[in-house]
Amino acid sequence: MMALIDDARAKVNLTLRVVGRRVDGYHDLESVVAFADCADRLSLTPAPRLHLTTTGPLAQACGEAADNLVFKAAQLLGEHVGNLKLGDFTLEKILPVASGIGGGSADAAAALRLLAQLNGLAIDDARLIEVARSTGADVPVCLGSRGCVMTGIGETLLPLNLPKMPCVMVNPRVPVATKDVFNALGLRNGELLVGAADVMDAPGWPDDGASLEDWVEALSAGSNDLEAPAMRIQPMIGEVLAALSATDGAWLARMSGSGATCFALYENTAEAQRASQKIQQAHPQWWVHAGVLS
Ligand SMILES: C[C@](O)(CO)[C@H](O)COP(=O)(O)OP(=O)(O)OC[C@H]1O[C@@H](n2ccc(N)nc2=O)[C@H](O)[C@@H]1O
Ligand SMILES: Nc1ncnc2c1ncn2[C@@H]1O[C@H](COP(=O)(O)OP(=O)(O)OP(=O)(O)O)[C@@H](O)[C@H]1O
């Protein structure tokens, strides 16, 4: 049988509000999530045993194969589904690691989609969703890889019809650990930041079919609550945001997830291309991607 192939698209948190900290230490969030047109690529060749080879420019950065989230997700699914057909995965690692765009989560989700395809499981099979949740907070949203409002710690997903959003994504190639950023918020276990009434009163997001301008206006009123703690841990995030904000036509510049990747939105792809060239010239060592979020 030929190899099955899937893209593991980068996730971008267009907004991220921290609602509070649960008693188990995880944080409840509300986040508008979009997906980018840059991705890792995962292939699966059916074989009797689970195996992973990592290739591509960032293969070294993502650590030992045994610790890879692709491996973890596949092993967990094997524990939930009897006689699961497995195989040889090859991961072409392109996305920066520990960068707030959910690369590892996207890879794990792609692994689950490929195993679902190989084993004839539906993508909304409860076991697949359960394994996605156990693999990491960002894995459920990456399973569908479509725009949505994500709440809880990442398990509740409300699909959104986002317009195509021309963007530039920039990572300064310094890793930032998600756990450290959440801890730097300094919330106690069980501490609530936003009362239930505030959540009920919060303005909704634009309706289906809303324009790019409507969305940019709504997103601009939001924020990423992890930006300040992440900047304390890695001040270079401030430089990335300044570089994006200084480009012609940048409508909104913000950090994604727990950083350090930041993005800016533009009216059209030509403007985004010009902005990305300007930033790449000034910072040849940074990872810069011009594309479209949707
Ligand atoms: C910041 C986001 O990227 C936003 O999409 C995600 O919430 C992070 O998702 P993730 O990287 O898949 O997170 P996990 O691998 O499950 O957790 C890493 C660490 O982040 C913290 N964590 C994660 C998610 C969450 N809602 N609250 C948390 O406090 C926990 O300390 C956890 O030990
Ligand atoms: N397939 C993978 N790709 C990248 N990192 C992986 C992978 N599997 C395990 N890891 C480990 O997970 C850690 C987090 O990597 P990842 O790139 O997913 O972070 P992130 O982009 O900050 O994610 P998020 O936005 O979900 O917080 C890395 O330090 C790495 O050691």
Automatic annotation (TrEMBL):
Keywords from the UniProt entry: ATP-binding, Isoprene biosynthesis, Kinase, Nucleotide-binding, Transferase
PANTHER family: 4-DIPHOSPHOCYTIDYL-2-C-METHYL-D-ERYTHRITOL KINASE, CHLOROPLASTIC
Name listed for the protein in its UniProt record: 4-diphosphocytidyl-2-C-methyl-D-erythritol kinase
Family the entry assigns: Belongs to the GHMP kinase family. IspE subfamily.
GO biological process, one term: isopentenyl diphosphate biosynthetic process, methylerythritol 4-phosphate pathway
Active site: K11, D138
Listed pathway(s): Isoprenoid biosynthesis; isopentenyl diphosphate biosynthesis via DXP pathway; isopentenyl diphosphate from 1-deoxy-D-xylulose 5-phosphate: step 3/6
HAMAP family assigned: IspE
Residue ranges crossing the lipid bilayer per the database entry: none
Gene expressing this chain: ispE
Organism of derivation: Bradyrhizobium lablabi
Residue intervals of the GHMP kinase N-terminal domain: 68-143
Molecular function GO terms recorded: 4-(cytidine 5'-diphospho)-2-C-methyl-D-erythritol kinase activity; ATP binding
Highest taxon in the source lineage: Bacteria
Residues given in the record as ATP binding sites: P96, V97, A98, S99, G100, I101, G102, G103, G104, S105, A106
